[in-house]
């Protein structure tokens, strides 16, 4: 029988309260469980000692029997010093998606075109006054 250490939700709507339980992986989330080994109240402050309560001896026993903790429970066990959790590394997580990359490229092209147009506009007025002066001289001569 495959066992998991997981959270079982209780509490009313918008007021969650979780039990940390040992359950068969096939049983539903809030359904039948084998043993309750702790509680988790996410509404309490993060530094509150009653936010997460775990019976560490029972947790060690169930880990030795082969129970697999979920990600969240593994964090709690790591904080309690029961089982060290390997840090996850996903370098692609912060990378934008394909559409966002395309939009960024389009924006860069538009900005580059705008800069070139501004540079041409700066260069063109410098030439125009000389042309206007020359035109003005021709009109006064004639």
From TrEMBL:
Keywords: Ribonucleoprotein, Ribosomal protein. Signal peptide: none annotated. One of its GO terms (biological process) is translation. Residues 84-142 are annotated as: Disordered. Transmembrane segments: none annotated. InterPro entries: Ribosomal_bS16, Ribosomal_bS16_dom_sf. Residues 129-142 have a biased composition (Acidic residues). The keyword Ligase does not apply. The keyword Nucleus does not apply. One of its GO terms (molecular function) is structural constituent of ribosome. Residues 95-115 have a biased composition (Basic and acidic residues). GO terms for cellular component: cytoplasm; small ribosomal subunit. It comes from the Bacteria. Belongs to the bacterial ribosomal protein bS16 family. PANTHER family: 30S RIBOSOMAL PROTEIN S16, SMALL RIBOSOMAL SUBUNIT PROTEIN BS16M. This is Small ribosomal subunit protein bS16. It comes from Stakelama pacifica.
């Amino acid at each position: 029988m495959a066992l998991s250490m997981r959270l079982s939700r209780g509490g009313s709507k918008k007021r969650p309260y979780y039990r940390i339980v040992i359950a068969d992986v096939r049983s539903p989330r809030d359904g039948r469980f084998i043993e309750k080994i702790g509680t988790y109240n996410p509404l309490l402050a993060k530094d509150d000692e009653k936010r997460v309560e775990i019976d560490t001896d029972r947790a060690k026993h169930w880990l030795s029997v082969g129970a697999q903790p979920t990600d969240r429970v593994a964090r709690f066990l790591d904080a309690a010093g029961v089982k060290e959790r390997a840090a996850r590394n996903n370098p692609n997580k912060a990378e934008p998606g394909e559409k966002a990359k395309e939009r960024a490229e389009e924006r860069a092209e538009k900005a580059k075109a705008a800069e070139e147009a501004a540079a041409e506009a700066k260069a063109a007025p410098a030439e125009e006054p000389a042309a206007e002066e020359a035109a003005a001289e021709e009109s006064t001569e004639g």
